[in-house]
Design goal:
Blueprint: E1 3-8, H1 16-29, E2 36-39, H2 50-61, E3 65-68, H3 80-87, E4 104-110, H4 112-118, E5 127-132, H5 133-137, E6 142-148, E7 151-152, E8 156-157, H6 161-165, H7 171-184, H8 186-189, H9 196-208, E9 214-223, E10 229-237, H10 241-254, E11 255-258, E12 262-268, H11 277-280, H12 282-285, E13 291-301, H13 311-320, H14 325-334, H15 336-339, H16 342-350, E14 358-363, H17 368-373, E15 377-378, H18 381-387, E16 396-400, E17 403-408, E18 415-418, H19 419-424
Parallel strand pairs: 2-3, 2-6, 6-9, 11-18, 12-13, 12-17, 13-14, 14-15
Antiparallel strand pairs: 1-10, 4-5, 7-8, 9-10, 16-17
């Protein structure tokens, strides 16, 4: 087990040239590789710098890089223009599409007793370790898993084995892991590297992925001094150490602890990155621990035109809505279609305020009737953008017409919490691996 690169601090600002040099130096330590697969995220993780790192990998290996498999999970396949924007001038034919329903192989199964333990007795199902067949059957001598470690609503801190087992995973694995996180409690998980969902993936990794030549490339990205983005860390390795080091830095870089709760928050969703409430509800996940009881969260979504990226999940959201944990658990127990789509059920829980604060969604195309039917308040995008102009607001506290608001320019880059709320959340350490 090796750590090939460990560079980072809260003040580090790696340039593109430095990123490339560190990557190439690490690749050199791996020795000769003749059949390489890159597994980066899709455009919803554009700020990870995975696009550049994938292109640098291609430039290094040339025709030995045989394929690029974006870790879509349940997301819509990338369009050619999105690929070009994120990855630059790479051959389009290298890019393969992951289908979470049909393209998978189950490598093994964790017992129901383990899931029962991790869920504190709430769940009693097995968990299948599923990956795209290209990963398990492609005969690659290097699988380069590239991505960003950042606080995450389902698994505490994103990336590492999640990029493979969820990003290229199958229906059951995705559904059951998401539901475990939702039932255990999102606010007990977010920002914690070790938690029940991570324990499941780590054990699956140890038991079922060790025969695969996977090397993880983990970035930590934060806001720079000029308001842009800064790469604060790069960690490359073939075991858990690179993830834990990246997680430690990410908490310092991406976690913003507030001394007082937010009464009104405005979150802007970049239209190049956010097209659905499925992804755009990061605005809800990442700010909820900072919002006061009775607060209002205003979500500006100029690129949002649908609920779910997947048509089946879109239908689930429209049918059952974001009405909180008790309503969702009841719907799962009473409806076979939602019980068969547990990742959708988990998302409905994550995207609800549980009645504690108001969520006003301002989408590009979804109508007032559509937004209100799923449990949100509706806001006119044009009017709200005029009042809360993202071009004029600074990240953090602002005053608009004499009212104090908190502005978040990109919810994907951080996690916000009131110190008292985060510290009172029960540590997620069940059977910590």
């Amino acid at each position: 087990m090796s750590l090939y690169c460990s560079v980072g601090s809260v003040d580090t600002d790696l340039s593109s040239q430095q990123l490339k040099e560190l990557l190439v130096e690490s690749l050199g330590k791996l020795g000769v590789r003749n059949k390489v697969l890159a597994v980066p995220p899709d455009q919803s993780r554009e700020h990870s710098r995975a696009g550049d790192l994938t292109r640098y990998t291609w430039e290094h290996y040339g025709d030995k890089l045989k394929a690029v498999l974006p870790a879509l999970g349940t997301h819509t396949p990338m369009r050619p223009d999105q690929i070009a924007h994120m990855f630059g001038e790479m051959p389009l034919e290298l890019f393969k599409v992951h289908n979470w329903r049909t393209d998978i192989e189950t490598l093994g199964e964790l017992p129901a007793s383990f899931i029962h333990e991790q869920s504190e007795g709430k769940l009693n199902y097995t968990w299948p370790a599923q990956v795209n067949k290209l990963i398990s059957q492609g005969g690659f001598d290097l699988i380069f898993s590239i991505g960003q470690v950042v606080p995450h609503e389902v698994i505490g801190m994103a990336n590492h084995a999640k990029n493979i087992l969820i990003g290229t995973g199958g229906r059951e694995g995705i559904n059951r892991s998401h539901y475990l996180g939702a039932v255990y409690g999102m606010e007990r998980i977010m920002g914690r590297a070790i938690n029940p969902v991570r324990n499941v993936l780590n054990r699956a990794c140890d038991e079922f992925l060790q025969h695969l030549p996977i090397v993880y490339v983990q970035t930590v990205v934060g806001r720079g001094k000029d308001g842009g983005l800064a790469v604060r860390g790069l960690y490359i390795g073939d075991d858990l150490e690179c993830f834990l080091k990246a997680s430690e830095l990410s908490l310092k870089v991406n976690f913003e602890m507030l001394d007082k709760p937010i009464k009104k928050a405005v979150v802007y969703l970049d239209p190049k990155e956010f097209h659905s409430t499925w992804i755009g509800n990061k605005a809800v996940y990442r700010t909820r621990m900072a919002l006061a009881d009775g607060a209002e969260l205003i979500v500006l979504g100029p690129g949002v035109h649908e609920f779910g990226e997947d048509k089946g999940i879109d239908a689930m959201i429209r049918k059952y809505g974001y009405f909180g944990t008790p309503a969702t658990l009841k719907a799962v127990n009473e409806n076979a279609d939602l019980a068969a789509n547990l990742s959708a059920a988990a998302h409905l829980i994550h995207g609800s305020s549980e009645g504690r604060f108001k969520i006003t969604w301002c989408p590009a195309e979804l109508s007032r009737e559509e937004i209100e039917s799923v449990g949100f308040a509706y806001g006119d995008l044009k009017a709200m953008t005029k009042k809360y102009d993202p071009e004029k607001l600074a990240h953090g506290w602002n005053y608009v017409d004499g009212e104090e608001i908190f502005f978040v320019a990109n919810p994907g880059l951080g996690l916000w919490a009131v110190r008292s709320r985060f510290e009172s959340a029960v540590p997620a350490a069940v059977g910590a691996a």
